[in-house]
Amino acid sequence: MSRRGRIGEKKTKYDPIFKNQLITRLAYHIMKNGKKSLAFKILYRVFLNIKKKTEKNPLYVLRQAIQKITPDITVKIIRIGGFNKRIPLEVGYTQGQMLAIRWLLDASNKRTGKTMALRLSDELIDAAKNIGYAIRNKEDIYEMVEENRVYIRLRNAK
């Protein structure tokens, strides 16, 4: 019996308070050792901090930050003729969103000092303002794409 591939797309559940899938995805990436309730507590503290600091709807700030971090194109390393080439590839919406969430959490983990809720809220606010480590990561990817634009023709040569 073949077990290759997925038959249907996996559905993400909605979070209990905001009824939003993006929050659930973010909580699943924050979660360590299966502690989902702790991940949701951290996220709700993040939203309280954003509300205090910006006086805006925290869900709006989250969407704006994720939208600004999400890449349209990325590079993939392929070995051709003994050399590793970085080939620019377009990224789908969900894959781009997952990259944005991963970069956001990596950037918040690199910040020093405070609790995870404070670090993540600061990073979300910075990303919504188009500054911060996660935005810098996206800009670095775009620089790599510009440097390796020559290899676009190798996209299908695998």
Large-scale geometry:
globular
Fourth CATH level, the homologous superfamily of the domain at 21-71 and 94-139: Ribosomal protein S7/S5
SSE run? HHHEEHHH
Low-pLDDT parts are none
CATH topology annotation of the domain at 21-71 and 94-139: Ribosomal Protein S7
DSSP, total strands: 2
Backbone CA Rg: 18 Å
Q: What is the typical, i.e. mean, pLDDT?
A: 89
The portion of residues forming beta strands comes to 5-15%
Q: Can you give the helix content as a percent range?
A: 55-70%
The strand order across the widest sheet is 1-2
Give the class-level CATH name of the domain at 21-71 and 94-139. Answer: Mainly Alpha
| Secondary structure category | mainly alpha
User: How far apart are the termini?
Assistant: 28 Å
Q: Give the second-level CATH assignment, the architecture of the domain at 21-71 and 94-139.
A: Orthogonal Bundle
For the report, how would you describe the main beta sheet? Answer: 2 strands, antiparallel
The number of distinct helices, counting runs of at least 4 residues, comes to 6
What's the arrangement of secondary structure elements?
Layout: H1 21-30, H2 36-54, H3 58-69, E1 73-80, E2 83-90, H4 93-110, H5 116-128, H6 133-147
Antiparallel strand pairs: 1-2
Helix pairs in contact: 1-2, 1-4, 2-5, 3-5, 4-5, 4-6
